[in-house]
């Protein structure tokens, strides 16, 4: 049996690729950004629905899994009431109304690392409480791309909600050995690179590898931070703005940013300093080389920095399949969460007409 999923806040399809590789089928997608929708169309042959707030939930095909890398928004009255009263006016409300109507077996949500601390933890708490009120048992974890074979130190909050009193077990995710950046670089004999002149940067002596795998190897000769910085600390990465830092290809790479439209990611490789290519940035997210890159470089850098790491998604998908769709797996059951009140359900159905 082929289980189906929908891809909300789809971006350029990172979530979709990961789940499709495990055998799940996408039956619906939604994304508001016009450039992301264009890339999605060129790679998957379908144009995602636009603004999620305008979607008529009855027109969404039936599905088993909901995927969403939803934006982090403040919930103005978070923690004061129950269910949908806490999340009205946020984009998470649109996820919740789709969940209530279609009752998928599994929900997988993704957000930034600091989502767990957003609004002093009330935002995460409200999301979990809302899913609980809809009948889902929830669990969440902070996952890092470097644990899934990708040489990028990129931490993300992952939330999984399940029906049937089942709690997803994150400890079953299979992790890999710490990778090195040099293994995903393009062939020097087949590609022209943008090298820095030697007078434009400074390398430091005996750079040390951090726990995350990062090796801060030097910096561009640009202005450094002044406030609160001790003298003679140029060898420390924190005094340099991200676009001025240089990392060794023998280690990992820091998080690609959705705000970095110029692609100022510099690496030390074979004794020279150069920028990562746009294709290398997409490799750092796990995208295959046949993934079509459409549009200006600035937009392509924005899209990849706002995407999700595919190998991490693929491992999550494998465990979703094993734990939640494999009847022979020994799943841990929990007491049933409190269901939504009839009053809140009435509000929900009214708002989705």
TrEMBL record:
A GO BP annotation: methylation
Source species: Cyanobacterium stanieri LEGE 03274
EC number, as in UniProt: 2.1.1.37
Record carries keyword Methyltransferase: yes
Protein name in the entry: Cytosine-specific methyltransferase
InterPro entries for the chain: C5-MTase, C5_DNA_meth_AS, C5_MeTfrase, SAM-dependent_MTases_sf
Protein family: Belongs to the class I-like SAM-binding methyltransferase superfamily. C5-methyltransferase family.
Active site: 72
Reaction catalysis annotation: a 2'-deoxycytidine in DNA + S-adenosyl-L-methionine = a 5-methyl-2'-deoxycytidine in DNA + S-adenosyl-L-homocysteine + H(+)
Enzyme class, UniProt record, top EC level: transferase
The keyword Methyltransferase appears for this protein: yes
A molecular function GO annotation: DNA (cytosine-5-)-methyltransferase activity
Pfam families noted in UniProt: DNA_methylase (PF00145)
UniProt entry keywords in alphabetical sequence: Methyltransferase, Restriction system, S-adenosyl-L-methionine, Transferase
């Amino acid at each position: 049996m082929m289980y189906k999923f929908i891809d909300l806040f789809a971006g350029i399809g990172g979530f979709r690729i990961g789940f499709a590789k495990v055998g799940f089928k996408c039956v619906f997608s939604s994304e508001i950004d016009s450039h992301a929708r264009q890339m999605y169309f060129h790679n998957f042959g379908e144009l995602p629905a636009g603004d999620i707030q305008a979607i008529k939930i009855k027109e969404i095909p039936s599905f088993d899994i909901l995927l969403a890398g939803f934006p982090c928004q403040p919930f103005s009255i978070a923690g004061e009431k129950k269910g949908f009263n806490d999340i009205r006016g946020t984009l998470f409300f649109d996820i919740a109304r789709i969940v209530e109507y279609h009752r998928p077996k599994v929900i997988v949500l993704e957000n930034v690392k600091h989502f767990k601390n957003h609004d002093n933890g009330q935002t995460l708490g409200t999301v979990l409480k809302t899913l609980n009120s809809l009948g889902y048992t929830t669990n969440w974890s902070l996952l890092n791309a470097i644990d899934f074979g990708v040489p990028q130190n990129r931490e993300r909050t992952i939330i999984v909600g399940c029906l049937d009193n089942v709690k997803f077990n994150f400890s079953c995710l299979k992790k890999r050995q710490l990778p090195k950046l040099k293994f995903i670089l393009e062939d020097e004999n087949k590609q022209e690179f943008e090298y820095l002149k030697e007078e434009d940067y400074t390398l430091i002596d005996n750079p040390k590898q951090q726990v995350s795998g990062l090796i801060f190897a030097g910096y561009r000769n640009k202005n450094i931070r002044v406030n609160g910085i001790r003298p003679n600390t140029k060898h420390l990465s924190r005094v340099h703005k991200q676009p001025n830092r240089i990392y060794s290809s023998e280690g990992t790479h820091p998080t690609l940013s959705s705000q970095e439209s110029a692609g100022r990611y510099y690496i030390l490789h074979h004794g020279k300093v150069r920028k990562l290519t746009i294709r290398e940035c997409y490799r750092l997210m796990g995208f295959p080389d046949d993934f079509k890159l459409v549009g200006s470089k600035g937009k392509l850098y924005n899209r990849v920095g706002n995407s999700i790491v595919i190998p991490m998604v693929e491992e999550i998908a494998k465990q979703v399949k094993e734990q939640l769709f494999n009847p022979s797996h020994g799943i841990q059951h929990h007491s049933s969460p409190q269901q939504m009140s009839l009053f809140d359900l009435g509000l929900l159905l009214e708002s989705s007409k």
